[in-house]
Design a protein that fits this description.
Helices cover about 45% and strands about 15% of the residues. The protein has five helices and six strands, in the order H-E-E-H-E-E-H-H-H-E-E. A hairpin with a 2-residue loop joins strand 1 (about 30-35) and strand 2. The longest helix is centred in the last third of the chain and has 21 residues, at about 115-135. The radius of gyration is 15 Å and the shape is globular. Mean pLDDT is about 75; it is low at about 55-60.
């Protein structure tokens, strides 16, 4: 995978599987067969992790700092959400921690393949790479191409 600035990142399917297994072992979630494949269900401990992010006050600003939403296979995180990920040290955690934080920041998302793929991209890039791509307008994570770019304040 490469970021928009050309930095190479590596986060394999095996890394993802190991991180999911670690989240299950730590009691954050359970994995079961669902109607369209694997389903990831939060436990009470996983809910507690995510609710800590959801309870964070929202900052209101007078300029566009990006959008927080999922559109198809793309996740948008605004500047404040990027700050939450980077400054909170979340990106140094495992994929479940990052995925749980994304769910908490978006509030309408659920754990699933797109969120886990986005978490993998963020972990692969790391805090420095995320900061390099964020220009104060937030970031865009395309899970089809496993790429990370700035939103360029196109909200």
């Amino acid at each position: 995978m490469k970021t928009e600035s050309g930095e190479s990142i590596t986060y394999t399917a095996m890394d993802l599987a190991e991180d999911i297994n670690r989240a299950v072992e730590m009691g954050f979630m359970i994995v079961r067969d669902g109607p369209s494949g694997l389903q990831f269900d939060l436990t009470a401990r996983g809910q507690q992790l995510i609710s800590g992010v959801q309870d964070t006050p929202v900052k209101v600003s007078d300029h566009c700092d990006g959008k927080n939403k999922i559109e198809g296979d793309t996740i948008y995180l605004d500047d404040d959400s990027v700050d939450e990920l980077v400054m909170g040290g979340t990106l140094s955690g495992g994929v479940f921690t990052v995925a749980g934080t994304i769910v908490g920041l978006l509030t309408t998302a659920t754990l699933g393949p797109i969120v886990f793929a986005a978490a993998g991209v963020l972990i692969g890039v790391g805090a420095t790479g995320v900061n390099l791509e964020n220009d104060g307008c937030g970031i865009k994570i395309d899970t089809n191409s496993n790429s990370l770019s700035s939103q360029h304040c196109d909200c």
